[in-house]
User: Fold these one by one.
Assistant:
Number 1:
Amino acid sequence: MRTTCRAFVILGLICLLGDIAMADDPWVVLEGKEGLGKGKHVVLLAGDDEYRSEELIPQLAKILAVHHGCKCTVLFAINKQTGEIDPSTQDNIPGLEALASADLMIMCLRFRDLPDDQMKHILDYTNSGRPIIALRTSTHAFNFRKHKTYAKWSFRSPDPKGGYGREVFGETWINHYGHHKVESTRGVVAEGMEKHPIVLGCEDIWGPSDVYGLTTLHGDCKPLIMGQVLSGMKPTDKPNPEKKAIPVAWLKTYTGTAGKASRIFTTTMGHAGDFQSEGFRRLLVNAAYWGMGMEDKIPPRSKVDIVGTYDPKPIGTGGFRKGLKPKNHGL
């Protein structure tokens, strides 16, 4: 009897330790509920130290998991010493192995300098022909200074020109076309794209982000949403008459080493405040369906209600919430 009891105690301790280990994983997995995306695996990467992607990205994951049934794995920039979410740690996004089984990669990265073993997972996915959604600073996702193997993918690379951002997404970092923190963005469906499935139900797209500048979009980019530069930081402000509307979201394909064309959706919106806009949230959810080849399943108004609470901190370098671990973003 004592032997049996001891065995149960040991088994219980093993289970408890296993739960603790899982709780301290440097990523979080949100198991999908019921929805059209059930059976799909979405891997989301948060790694910028300005626009609060560490708050926007897990909320997007919750919407995709709770309202649409997708299994979502959320990866963060993690401080190697504390295990806490730390966007200023530019060389560590653990868990990128999850991309091997992903049906969709969503990223909001900025100036990452990832070690070779981590970057390889991103490039393997990029070359596989599977879809990508890129937000805001992902046009300048990488800036390799310590790790040189993949330096050609840095945002100012001469070959390929503009690095990963321009080659894969269609543009790299250029400038702030709208006045940063002074002129906000109104998104308007591009002429001729009014019936595209991604824009279903996206009647009102607005955000406090400023419109990013562009050169000429690279490759087969098709503008989907045009960004009007507003004269202030309220959605009721008038467009600045001196600044014409330019693309803030577009579609593209990218063919990597596998020889398969992937669907790419890029938006230079993606400030955490933009995600307060129902229209912008719906744009991203619809883009996820489109990317995974499920455009015929996009409902007239995809459900994009906030899950739990969403009150992101103000943007700015170093302004992230301190002391949080990925488990804090669980359902």
Number 2:
Amino acid sequence: MNRRPYVMLALILVLIAFALWIDLSNQITILNPFNQKSLIDRNVSIRLGLDLRGGLQTLLEADLPAETTVSSDDLNIARQILENRSNALGVSEVVMQVAPPRRIVAEFPGISNPEDVVTSLQKTGLLEFVDTGTERLNPGTVIQTDFGTDGAVSPTNTPDSTLTPTAEATATSDAAPTEVPAQTAPVIYHTVMTGTALDTVTVTQGATGQYQIAFTLKSDSKQLFADFTGSHVNQILAIVLDKTVISSPSIDSAITDGAGVITGSFTLEAANSLAIQLRYGSLPIPIKVVESRTVGPTLGQESVQKSLFAGIIGFIVIIIFMMLYYRLPGALAVLALIVYTMTSLMLFKLVPVVLTLPGIAGFILSIGMAVDANILIFERLKEELRAGRTLHQAIDLGWSRAWPSIRDSNFATLITCGILFWFGNAFGASLVKGFSLTLALGVLVSLFTAISVTRTFLHVVLDNLKITEHPRWFGL
């Protein structure tokens, strides 16, 4: 007896059990059996887009003079950094689209703290480690530094220089001296290094329970930091974010391991917000909020229910057709289609895919693609049975001769999905991206069910039947 179909059946049953677990869960947790700590703790609830559940829609713009040209590279880098920040804030369904020449459109489905999200996103996040000598500046103080807008630290100052205010020289002449009011030049402090030197940034708690930001430096910045702290013991190295002092710690000793902490009167939310800004870098261009509005679902629960109702009706019609026309193989195809639906939903929750109404349409369309593969196999199967083949031979020959058609049609669909996804990504058409993604995932799963699931079910159930005794079971 050929055991291979039964081995495949066992694997398919394991897949079904796993898919059921994911499909019926909103949160999955796997514990380490040795210490009972969580190995996996993940939210797998279905995520709906802005058109189905509402949220926040924000229009961001480069905060630069109108005559300043904003490069497309800077705009795309800003969009990527903003996406990273928003995902770290827990808004993982965010959709951001570049709207040339200087705007970014952001959508945040279902968020509950729109003000915090917008405030965090528009900050440039420029971190500087500033030498203030022996002067301890209060948190919140706005200062000037010698870090230029071109991203370069002024070469005229070195980490070992003495930083004191200097007045501009006054010109002299033969004329009688005239008394002029004394003018105090603004104090410009020296930036030792910026946030680009940071390697990792995490939120920790100190010995007294206060929140702080722990950081490590990249290898090429460790020596600079060690040299500076070693030659400036008992002096102040201010931590400055966007020209505003966060804290002014004193250097107790040389820091040679490239690790340190930023302390201050942080709440957990403030520490997390700062860590996110530092972790994902400063924006290449300043960003301002042009418009921000909370929107209700444009389609909402009623549209979801109608879409699901239409999908269920279509599924029932498919079941009736397959069982009436193909009889027993049709019933097995229905089982394979159920496996397909469960597996697709599992992938949507694990990826995760943000479902919009076009995305749901792409999923329903992919069900038709899965049925199409089964129809091709069964038609070939019936042809082989009419030619006098045994059931085992007819199954293998029917599948192998239907496979080229299945492969070519599905790969053509995948190519189309790739083009649609590129189009949606390039032109900011997120709804097109959602449709192409769900359709592509559905096509890939349908290939799996056609190659493995349907064929395995046919062998397990039909190999021991004699076609001459039950021809009506096959629609012959």
